[in-house]
Amino acid sequence: EVQLVESGGGLVQAGGSLRLSCAASGFTVDEYAIGWFRQAPGKERELVAGITNGGSTNYVDSVKGRFTISMDSAGNTVYLQMNSLKPEDTAVYYCHARVYATNYWGQGTQVTVSS
Question: Distance between CA atoms of 95 and 35, rounded to whole angstroms?
Fold first, then answer.
């Protein structure tokens, strides 16, 4: 069974840092593209960062230079290191993978950045 479990969210002051984790089971993360999405209240869910099975990464413009996505193959986990956080980064963050032609999402982890 494919599962994605996020952790690491919380409340942080502007300028602070958090590291989100996405622990995967039922598949191997280095064989699929993994994405971190976020959804703020009243807004659509947006792709924040992605990493391919080849290790290529991409980021939405608003987080470039501040966020870093990485993969730990041994631990079957994908991370999102978030630095220089801003109040506009406040959202629920979700991990996503498309495995066996099916979209899978984690339960989400709340990130709140206070000004």
Answer: 6
